[in-house]
Amino acid sequence: MQMQGDNGKQYHVQLEKGDVGKYVLLPGDPGRCEPISRLFDEPRLVASNREYTTYTGYLDGVKVSVTSTGIGCPSAAIALEELVMVGADTFIRVGTSGHIQKDIKSGDLAIISAAIRDEGTSLHYMPIEFPAIADIDLVLALQKAAKKTGARHRTGISQSKDSFYGQHEPERMGVAQNLLNRWKAWEIGGALCSEMEASAIFVIASMLRVRAAGIMMVHATEPMPPLDILLETAVQGLREIIAEDKANGRAVN
Amino acid sequence: MSLKQHHIQLEKGDVGRYVLLPGDPGRCEVIAKHLDNAVHVITNREYVTYTGYLDGVKVSVTSTGIGCPSAAIAVEELVRVGADTFIRVGTSGGIQPGTKSGDLAIVSAAIRDEGTSSHYMPMEFPAIADLEIVSALRRAAQIKGVRYRVGITQSKDSFYGEVEPERSAVSEKLLDRWRAWEIGGAICSEMEASAIFIIASMLNVRAGGIMAMHGEGEFGSLEPLIETAIVGVRELIKGDADARR
Q1: If I label B144, which of A51, B104, B177, B201 is the partner at 20 to 30 A Cα–Cα?
Q2: Looking at residue A6, what is its pLDDT?
Q3: What is each CA distance from B147 to A67, B101, B182, B225, in whole angstroms?
């Protein structure tokens, strides 16, 4: 079934072929799309429906877009599926996250190489044993970008969860002991940060043979600095992968 | 009291920080021939260890035996005697169509289709390889000019469950899941990577894997696999030296 309305647009994101570039940044917050789009050349608002806001512009002459996913894997999965249907094939999730490792400072960037599947959506796609991993070339491009922007950064695993308050106030929950035990496991396992969309994006990207990775600013105990360095690094990451794709003769438009 | 680890019978100084991990004890000597001044250190159960040098740096080969239970023991005990960089090297079955026998799989992550890693981490946690190792092995494959893919391996507990699923009482389930791994893009199937990766994440050491795949056509010599793994270790040694400078 092709979920398209009478207008030929994808059902939820309200986009059609040509509306977006192959390269798409995926913030959670619709309000963050406009500030990100200002880092593109000639940005324009393409569509805004539910939590899905899309801007399209250019970087180094190549069409790029930013589409918000809303909070959580259920809405992020829809965004990814529909963006692939209209021609996108390279995704960088960009957003904020909570720290898991205690030596991380607020404002440090986490480049996400894989995700803990602590959510329900990706189970509709693949058995739980299957790893949620990022594309290696995108991860390397983001590392290169972070070196260029001078951002403090680490590369590693993110926990993708379905409940914000289950993480922040676990003792309130009927499954408090389970939540606390598992949080300890993620810490022992070396996971860097906690957010709510990466794992479904990665599992679905593997299935659809498209590329995905993520870069998150981490919130630790100190107040958060402005997000500018995160957004600049994510956009630089797009420039790096575009340059590499051009060098390898891969179509960029 | 012996300072030697219970199963692998090694103590500090016996191995380098870089260790190649074949499954088959019989393959250790073959691999060790690619090291300078290799010596046989010890053999106990399925654990055979040789230590030699590459570019003046101490490098070892230790067999894990078949399966995650014995591989987990090998990694735990090798870390205790000072190793911190592991490359699993072995054979595997190809999953994707178009795989030719002898094509190399550079493993970036593993499907946890086994029981051992659940004793370490909840199932939602991803079994991933170290990025530097994956990059080094990819450079090595390019240098050697061999056919290779980078991707996910299925690490299973039952060899015959994979090759003869219809015999099993859970055959429907095995067939369904195999289809899932294929849809998900997994490139090969073997029996040790996922536990090695999960334990490496927990112990904060590096692990990766490179596997020759069975696919279309005759399976030839393992030499290209071993040579590529050796170049991969050299690339890592060079990268680690650069990082220190």
Answers
A1: B201
A2: 64
A3: 37, 10, 20, 10
Among A113, A123, A129, A244, the strongest candidate for a mutation testing the B interface, having the largest count of B CBs within 10 A, is A129
pLDDT digits (tens, 9 = 90+) for A17-29: 999 999 999 999 9
Contacts of A191 in chain B (CB under 8 A): 125
Rounded to the nearest angstrom, the minimum Cα separation between B47 and chain A is 26
* B117 in contact with A, Cβ within 8 Å: no
Q: What is the pLDDT of residues B136-178, one digit of tens each?
A: 999 999 999 999 999 999 999 999 898 899 988 899 999 999 9
Find all residues with CB under 8 Å of B183, minimum gap 6, and list them.
Answer: A126, A207
pTM of the model: 0.90
Matching residue, tokens 């630790």: A220
- Asked if the Cβ–Cβ distance from B109 to A118 is below 8 Å, we say no
Encode pLDDT of B181-194 as tens digits: 999 999 999 999 99
Strand partners, B85: B18, B206
Q: Which residues of A62-97 are buried (b: 16+ CB within 10 A; e: fewer)?
A: bbbbbbbbbbbbbbbbbbbbbbbbbbbbbbbbbbbb
What share of chain A in percent tops pLDDT 90? 96
Minimum-distance CB partner of B127 among A131, A182, A188 = A131
Select from B239, B128, B186, B184 the least CA-distant residue to A113.
Answer: B128
Of B108, B131, B201, the CB nearest to A189: B201
Phi and psi at A98, nearest 5°, equal -100, 150
**Nearest-CA distance B38 → chain A (Å):** 34
Helices (H), chain B: 26-32, 68-80, 131-144, 159-163, 171-183, 193-203, 223-244
CA of A116, closest CA in chain B: separation in Å? 4
**Best CA proximity match to B89, nearest among B137, B36, B139, B156:** B137
Question: What is the C-alpha to C-alpha distance for residues B109 and B208, in angstroms, rounded to an integer?
Answer: 8
pLDDT, mean of residues B59-76 = 96
In A15-139, the DSSP E strands lie at 23-26, 41-49, 52-59, 62-67, 90-99, 109-118, 132-133
Residue with tokens 């994440």: B201
Nearest to B121 among A128, A130, A189 (CB): A189
Burial zone of B145 (CB within 10 Å; 0-12 exposed, 13-18 middle, 19+ buried):
exposed
Please give the interface size between A and B, counted as residue pairs whose CB atoms are below 8 Å apart: 80
Q: Which residue of A has its CA nearest to B119?
A: A185
Query: The complex's ipTM?
Result: 0.84
- From residue B153, alpha-carbon distances to A133, A244, B91, B124 in Å are 12, 26, 11, 16
What element of type H or E holds B39? strand B36-44
